[in-house]
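User: For a benchmark we're assembling, each entry needs the component sequences followed by a predicted structure for the full assembly. Here are entry 17's components. Please fill in the structure.
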Amino acid sequence: MVTRVTSDADLVAAAASGDHSAYATLVRLHADAVYAHALRFFGDVPTAEDATQEVFLKVFRSLGSFDGRARLSTWLYRVTRNVCLDMVRAGKRTPLPLDPVDLEPLSQADFSDDVAFAGALEVAIATLPPEEREALGAVGLFGLTYAEASGTLGIPEGTVKSRVFRARRALTHILRMAEGGDHDGLPQSG
Amino acid sequence: MDCLKAAETLSAAYDGVPVEPGLLDRAHAHCATCPECAAFAETLARMGHVAPPRAPAPLVERIIEATRAEADALKAAPARQTAMFGTAGPAQPSRRGLLPSWWQPRMTAFVSAAAVLLVGVVASLALIGQAGLTGSEADLEQSLDSYTIDATVADDAGDRGAEESAEALGEAPAEDAPSTTMPAPPYVMWNETVYVHTGELLEIPSEATTQGVTVSDLDDPEGPRERAVIADPDDPATIFVRTSNGGVMGFERVVRTLGLREYALVTDQAIPAFGTWPRLPSRFETAEADGSPAFTLIGFDDLNVDVYVPPAGDMADGFAVAPGTSPDDPAAGNPYWTWWEPVP
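Assistant: Structure for entry 17:
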């Protein structure tokens, strides 16, 4: 059996030349990252779906402008971020967190199975400061390098690194506490 | 190794960042003796195993169908209004409604003129009715005065129509005309590229040498004159211009990004004085026979600003941006269309 691996750049080129199945493949490959970012940004499914659709329509209409110098995921992240921010600027949608006290606290549970852990992780991510959640999403969902995220977010590479680290450290703390850990789970200095 | 260093090392390694040889081993060794860091490492590993929220399958299919429908519509529509592939124009986004965006100001003028006409007709009917009721010439004159005011509005609408024609040449709609807009930022033009003032400088980089001249008043009451442009040939993103008193002013190239690539603001129209807005290169100042604008929407840049290309134009050669961009846009406030070319 021969497995044919097609790069994003090849798919974009094919889609830009009118091959819609190539674009469908791109959508299937990247929809989860876009949707997950939007869901974490807004916190509700209908808005996340609207944002996801808007992102892929915008990308579709601008395929010809993608010159392949950067990775598609970098461009896609930037478009996703802008679409979400534009929806907020339009005044019709509100990003998370409304107020941390409004968020449902993470109930104590056994996270030994991945489904429970994944659910708890999403709740914990919602409690992160937006800038940490954003950096974590760029790196974790879209697979951007620190340098790529730095360029897209307009912050130094070191700041991306520290925000991602702080986010993970906070998530560890929240999840361990929810799981009934008897320590705060935070790596301490010394 | 302390806890913080161990956790930072694990986090960076998890993201594929190369770490010093042995550092990762020491971080793992630390975790073997430190429950907190072990918990961090375990959580990190588990995060990598669980999938983030997945896009619902119906949503994915809906998106694919929506773009397929748009692609089909593009193929069926006249090339002038559509065509996003290759060098032709783009699809009009659905949010724009039935008419292309460049028709919106025309429709506004048309609706305004129609409204004025309607007001005139209503006023005439009222006038006739009132005159018939009172028979008073004074009342009639008063009503005519009112009508005259409406007629002035009608003239304004006519002027607006003329400006709409001008818009076809890349100029702004009436409400954004230069007479009613604020002055431009302190721009200079050199090598057909627009630069904006960044501040006074104490010294010029040692690599910079005189590369040519530009004509600008630099806000000096003596007016425009030729001034030496000093730049590092390897870094033309920044230039330095000599002032009359021997000082130096720094300027940065005005750019926007599209697809993460930089495009510079370009014009061949002089910017002899601070406060002058850059205009389209003169080669675009030709309207088509039917008076329609010479640009076609092709997409958007990284700030979600719509970008346009000439008929059969290629984005690789540059694109135009319409007036009316948001305050954080590099063309904010410009009442004219602007032209942007890829930075070499």
